[in-house]
Structures are given as structure tokens and as C-alpha cells.
Design brief:
Keywords: Signal. This is Secreted protein. The structure is a single chain. By secondary structure, the protein is mainly beta. The protein has one domain. It has one helix and eleven strands, in the order αβββββββββββ. A six-stranded mixed β-barrel has the order 1-5-6-4-2-8. The radius of gyration is 20 Å and the shape is globular.
Length: about 160
């Protein structure tokens, strides 16, 4: 009897350990940065979803949302030079991002606002590719994607 109870307890404990290890790891506290690969005719990508970010200009800065209180964010991912779309790009490397909710001037150029949103895991993003360099015109495609829960820092999204 004692052996069967011990075997049952051991089996139950093993199942609990296996179930716990099957839970996916969360990146950056449950958030992902976004890296993009687009067609060569895409010059900016508008992304809308739930997350948080710091933003900065030459003269000021702030935060939109927080890790404990994520919020709705609209962001424009812009290629900083022509001829770079078609390859993987991320903010600080081939791209810059500004958020509509942040202060200061937004767009490409000196003294403009910069940010790098962290998108909440397991939430949907609306993604629009555009031919304009500043997310204002020339929509090429629109799709909804879900931010993964894979433990990686970046969500590598090929459009």
C-alpha cells in the first residue's frame, strides 16, 4: 500500500512539474520588441496594439503605458534610408519608430521623437505596410498578427 501511495504521489508530482515546464517563457516581462522584413516597395509600417514604450526627443521624454499597465499604442516604423526594405530591420538598425501618443515632433530627421515599443505577448497587432516614408499614405497591405509567447526578445515579423 505504501509503495503504491508513493508511486502515485511521485507520478502526480512529475505531472505537475511537466505541466509547469510546458508553459511558454515570456520575453522582456511578457512583451516583445518588433523586427520587420518587408517587400522592397514598403517604406514604413504602421502598427497598432497593446504595449508600452519610452519616447524621447532632443529636449524631452516620457513613457506611454508601463510594464504593469500596458495601453493602446499606435506606432510608425520607418526605414531611415532607401534601399533597406526587403531585409530584416529593427529600431536602431535600419529603422526608427515614433508613437502617436508620445510628445514632440514625429518623423524622420534631427530632433524628432524616437521610441521602441514593447508589444504585449498573446495580444493582436494590426499591421499596415505603406509606400510613404512616414505612415501617412499609400497603404499596400493590412493584417492582424498575434504577438508570440516564445521567450525571445524580438517578434520577427515577415510581411
Amino acid at each position: 500500500m505504501r509503495k503504491s501511495l508513493m508511486a502515485a504521489a511521485l507520478a502526480t508530482g512529475t505531472a505537475v512539474i511537466l505541466a509547469a515546464s510546458a508553459t511558454p517563457a515570456l520575453a522582456d516581462g511578457g512583451f516583445h520588441y518588433l523586427a520587420l522584413r518587408t517587400r522592397a516597395d514598403v517604406h514604413s509600417v504602421f502598427v497598432s496594439g497593446i504595449g508600452w514604450t519610452n519616447w524621447a526627443t532632443q529636449n524631452s521624454g516620457g513613457t506611454v503605458g508601463s510594464p504593469t499597465e500596458p495601453t493602446g499604442i499606435d506606432a510608425c516604423y520607418q526605414y531611415v534610408a532607401t534601399g533597406l526594405s526587403g531585409d530584416w530591420a529593427r529600431p536602431g538598425q535600419q529603422m526608427q519608430v515614433y508613437v502617436n501618443q508620445g510628445g514632440g515632433r514625429q518623423g524622420i530627421g534631427s530632433g524628432y521623437q524616437y521610441s521602441n515599443p514593447r508589444w504585449q505577448d498573446a495580444h493582436n497587432l494590426t499591421v499596415v505596410t505603406l509606400s510613404s516614408s512616414d505612415c501617412t499614405a499609400g497603404a499596400l497591405s493590412k493584417k492582424s498578427v498575434s504577438v508570440p509567447t516564445d521567450g525571445l526578445t524580438y517578434f520577427w515579423l515577415s510581411l
